[in-house]
Design a protein that fits this description.
Blueprint lengths: L1 E5 L7 H16 L3 E4 L5 H12 L3 E7 L12 E5 L2 H11 L2 E4 L4 H15 L7 E4 L6 H12 L7 H4 L1 E3 L2 H11 L1
Parallel strand pairs: 1-2, 1-5, 2-3, 3-4, 5-6, 6-7
Helix pairs in contact: 1-2, 1-7
Length: 176
């Protein structure tokens, strides 16, 4: 399975890197392919290292203005001309999506896939991996959106919330 992971390229604390590495190793040992932003820095590097060392494949989708940070030695690397095309390619190449900790870019990517699901333009499973409670506030906001009628579909049809890496991968494997 090609699993797209949206996540930060920042250097982060171990409370975020350890679970990300654990998820990456699970993904690699299971023989899956990581589809990610292609960067060889920060949390993106941690996940790519874990997948590659555990025997998984790496499919990166970088963007021209970040190509100097693209990871060498991957199975496949695509360089998109802009961020919009990068998102489109990431989603096109993925069978499933995991949203890990990240900043505004990660939120942009996450809302893109959720909008596509909301409108029935994709049925790919989406997991929000809520490492160290990072997305507690966002989960609360999504539940409020659902409760107050802002979502035309049940939240459970849009995404699965997981607190641990093993639960995230188990959900994806059962959903595809």
């Amino acid at each position: 399975m090609n699993i797209c992971v949206f996540l930060s390229a920042a250097d982060l604390d171990e409370r975020y890197t350890r679970p990300a590495r654990e998820f990456a190793e699970l993904l690699g040992r299971a023989g899956h392919t990581l589809v990610w932003g292609g960067s060889d820095v920060g949390l993106m590097k941690v996940v790519a290292d874990g997948v590659q060392e555990a025997g998984g494949r790496l499919l990166g989708v970088s963007v021209e203005f970040l190509a100097n940070k693209a990871r060498p030695g991957v199975d496949e690397m695509v360089i998109a001309p802009d961020l919009a095309e990068r998102k489109r390619l990431l989603l096109e190449k993925a069978d499933a999506v995991v949203i890990m900790v990240g900043g505004t870019g990660t939120l942009d990517e996450a809302t893109e896939i959720l909008e596509l699901k909301k409108h029935g333009r994709t049925d790919k499973p989406v997991v929000l991996l809520n490492t160290a409670g990072f997305y507690d506030g966002l989960e609360t906001q999504f539940r409020r959106m659902e409760a107050e009628g802002f979502l035309p579909r049940p939240l459970a049809e849009l995404m699965f919330f997981a607190d641990e890496p093993a639960a995230a991968l188990a959900h994806l494997e059962s959903a595809t």
